[in-house]
Amino acid sequence: MKTADSLALRHDGRRLRILDQTLLPHREEWLEVPDPDAMVLHIRRLAVRGAPLIGVAAALSLATFAQDGAGPAELRLAAAHLRRARPTAVNLMWAMDRMGAILDGGRCKDDVVMAELIAEAEAIFVEDVALCEAMARQGLGLFGEGEAVLTHCNSGGLATAGIGTALGLIRRGFEAGRVTHVFVDETRPLLQGARLTAWELARLGIPHTLLTDSMAAILLREGRVQRVLLGADRVAANGDFANKVGTYGLAVQCRHHGVPFHPVAPWSTVDLACPGGDAIPIEQRDPAEVRGTWAAAGTPAFNPSFDVTPAHLVTSLVTDRGVFTAAELASGILSRPRLRPTP
Questions:
Q1: For the whole model, what pTM was predicted?
Q2: Catalytic residue numbers, as ranges
């Protein structure tokens, strides 16, 4: 297998390693992932996260397992296990379906299956890097001059194999002189904004300010934010989308204050088999994440990992295949045949 190297994932041709994102920003520790079972655990505990990245990581894990001698039956079981690791992020299912198509393709020799799985995993990695740049190119024209933007959760190099989705677009906007400042929601309850996005922005030298999620409305009301950009974990055929919990409330606030609101996602996040937001499964996580160390043990807590934002609250959806307004999303543009072929 060829080498694969990104901000959060490394493969040296034999070993697959991930940057443990649960330890950031205070420790940068790389973990070797010996098999798909270990990858499932790391995905579930959010050591590796971000919809595009978990698809890439799962594909590389399966290919490494094949390279280490696993047969087709073992690989099918491993692919099914990986596919179920997180229910909302459709990129994971998309990547496993691509790998599964090779396993189900009728090849009779294990070495042929292994070679094809490795090639497909490498292709998924390379494609994700290219998709990130394509989204940035498509969305760069949204910015005026010297804008301050706000983002929620983490959608950068820690969430993809490339520069990121929304944060990748923000990065290219900053490099072009169109973005001057980034406001970062801390993103309760696991603080991906505070721990991860602020860490990435600091590495890139992009001016930023951290705030709690409940403070965003003040900035929107005072006109200190010119637009909001964030990622997505699944986009339905009608443009409704799931993203880190708190996104829906932010969209409502943007509509009230007249601030443009843009989800940014690669085509691998678009699920044309999902008609609308009501059909998106929402992962429910451990209530202890909400209770933290400050609430009494056993306090009941509600902890959906994601919420769903309806397409009519979207100013435009930025993808690698184009930028689509709410009206275009309502017209069913995502399902039109011209958008379906892989670029």
A1: 0.95
A2: 233
